[in-house]
Structure formats: C-alpha cells, structure tokens
Specification:
Blueprint: H1 2-22, E1 24-29, H2 37-52, E2 56-61, H3 66-75, E3 80-84, H4 85-93, E4 107-123, E5 138-140, H5 147-158, E6 166-168, H6 172-180, E7 186-191, H7 197-205, E8 208-210, H8 215-224, E9 229-233, E10 246-258, H9 263-273, H10 276-285, H11 297-302, H12 308-316
Parallel strand pairs: 1-2, 5-6, 5-7
Antiparallel strand pairs: 3-10, 4-7, 4-8, 4-10, 9-10
Helix pairs in contact: 2-9, 5-8, 9-12
C-alpha cells in the first residue's frame, strides 16, 4: 500500500510538471531603463503570467526601444512587443533604418496601444524660441535604438536643422537632468501624449517651454514621413513655464506579434490585458495602458495587416476592423 501511495504521488508530480511544461513560452520585449515602456510592459507580462500563466508563459526582456523591438519581432527574437508606427512601416517595406534588413513581414498588428506626440522643449529662460534658433546649440535626441531617437531626428530633418545642431544621445533618465543643469540646450522625446513625467517634474523648480514647428516645417516633416499626423499640443497646466500651444507631430504605437504565436495565445493576451478590471490595475502602475484599443484606421493606407485573432477580439469589443486590413500568414 505504501508503495502504491508513493507511486501515485510520483505520478502526480510528473503530471504537474508536464502541465507546466505544456504552457506555450513567449518572449515579450519592453523598453530601456528610464523610459515608459520598461515598467509598462513588465507590468503587463506579470499580469499575463498571473492570469494565464498555466497556458501561456511570458518572459519579459528589456530592450533599446522601438527600433530594437520591431527588428527583434521581425526576426522572431521577440514573440511580441510594442513599436512606433514609423519603425513598423519601415520594417514592413524594408526602407529607412531597415533597408539592410529587407522587408520584414513575418509579424502582424494586434492592438493600438496609444498615440504619442514628439515634445521638443527648452528651459523657459532660454533664448531659443524656434527650431531655427537651435542652430549651433546642443540638442539631445535620446539614445540610439529608441523610437524617440528616430522621431527626434525626423523632426529636426524636417525642420531643416539636423546638420546644424550639436547632437547628444543621452538616455531617458539623464535627459531632463541634463537640461536642468544646462548641459544641453534642447530636450526632445516622445510625449504620452502631451507630457513627459521627468520634464514635468523638472518644470516645478526650473520652468520649461515647448518649441513649436512652423506650419511649413510641420508639413515638411509629414511629407517626408507619411506615417505622422499634424498635432497642436495645447498648453499643459502641469508643465510650469509652458505659455503657448506647440505644433508638433503625432503617431501611433502598435502592439506586434510574430507569426509563431498561436491564435489562442493572442486572443488570451488581449482578453487579459484589455479586460476593464485588469486594465485598471495596469493603468494604476503605468499610464501607457490607458488607451489600449482596436483602432487600426491608419494601417489601411499603410497596407500593414492586422492579425485575424486580434481583429476578431476587437470586433467583439465594438471596433470596426476593415476586412482589407486583416491578413493571416
């Protein structure tokens, strides 16, 4: 009898171990330290493992940001990650930063995370009033490999000053501090959508101003980069020193999935993170999750497809996903 009891117990351990091993394993990419994606995606991975970890296991990996994420998903080194529409467009078409990679089309879009804007700021007492005033000045374009760095470069190129500025590539954590210490003259980064926590915090003791594109500069940035949209950032009461609206660019952040992810995993991932109660938990930790949605309108003109499992989920939530944007592998 003792032998049989031991045998049954051993069999149970094996069964439990086998069940754990049966969970599909996926690697989810995040972002760099100091940026908003790192805490946001790591919180999402934790929630997913708590809620559906018996079926789908998500292993979180930090990254250098949007360029890194899109490239790694394109090659299947990440199973899923977030990416700016600009890098998604370039990867899909094998242009720009992805020209040497060629077309990377083994991924699909599964969600629209949020819209972001590009914020370009100076200390309020700075003599810089326009983009042309930045010539000869120290302008931080953030760390290479991040989507913000690409967007900063694009906006400076569109304004016609990229070759006339003294470029720095400080990371997210160091940028606001460097502006406050006057080690740099201009701060550029992605806003979510209209503010950056570190910059807003800095403004309490050292007021800051946002710099506005002219109509011509804004049009030129968008002409060169069709995945951007024009936006005017309203005055932000929490940003001390901002006393006027600022013309800039807006762009979507999308959630990508590699072709080897199962339909079941994608459905479960969206059902879990977009569940209203779970979303409240995520937003309490990281506001980036606040606007998670199924609006894929912009993808129609860019000819970048939505995953069928994602389309089915978002349609069940009341979003109208155009048939021509949905494409299986």
């Amino acid at each position: 009898m003792k032998f049989m009891t031991t045998l049954v117990a051993a069999a149970s351990v094996v069964a439990i171990a086998s069940a754990a091993q049966a969970a599909e394993q996926y690697r989810i990419g995040g972002g760099p330290a100091g940026g908003g994606w790192h805490p946001s995606v790591s919180a999402g991975a934790q929630l997913l493992n708590e809620e559906i970890g018996d079926r789908f296991k998500f292993n979180y990996s930090p990254s250098n940001g949007s360029v890194d994420n899109v490239r790694r998903v394109g090659y299947g080194k990440f199973d899923t990650a977030w990416g700016h529409v600009g890098q998604v467009f370039q990867a899909w078409n094998g242009v720009g930063l992805f020209e040497e990679d060629g077309k990377l089309q083994d991924f699909r879009i599964i969600a629209n995370v949020r819209k972001q804007t590009q914020i370009v700021a100076v200390l309020a007492d700075s003599p810089i009033k326009s983009y042309s005033d930045m010539k000869g000045k120290i302008v931080n374009l953030l760390n290479k490999g991040s989507g913000s760095n690409v967007n900063c470069r694009n906006i400076m190129e569109g304004a016609g000053i990229i070759n006339d500025i003294d470029v720095r590539n400080l990371g997210f954590s160091d940028s606001a501090r460097a502006l406050g210490d006057r080690q740099i003259d201009v701060y550029c980064s992605a806003g979510a959508p209209f503010t950056i926590p570190a910059l807003t915090q800095l403004s309490i003791t050292k007021p800051v101003r946002y710099i506005s594109l002219t109509d011509e500069e804004q049009a030129n940035v968008i002409k060169t980069n069709p995945f951007y949209a024009a936006v005017t950032i309203p005055v932000q009461p929490d940003v001390k020193g901002m006393d006027a609206p600022a013309k800039s660019i807006a762009y979507d952040v999308y959630w990508l999935a590699y072709k080897t992810m199962s339909d079941e995993a994608i459905s479960a991932m969206l059902e879990t993170t977009a569940d209203p109660e779970n979303l409240k938990k995520l937003v309490a930790v990281a506001g980036y999750w606040k606007t998670l949605n199924g609006d894929f309108t912009n993808l129609k003109s860019l000819n970048i497809p939505v995953h069928p499992a994602a389309a089915k989920y978002w349609e069940s939530r009341g979003f109208d996903v155009a048939d021509e944007t949905v494409k299986a592998f």
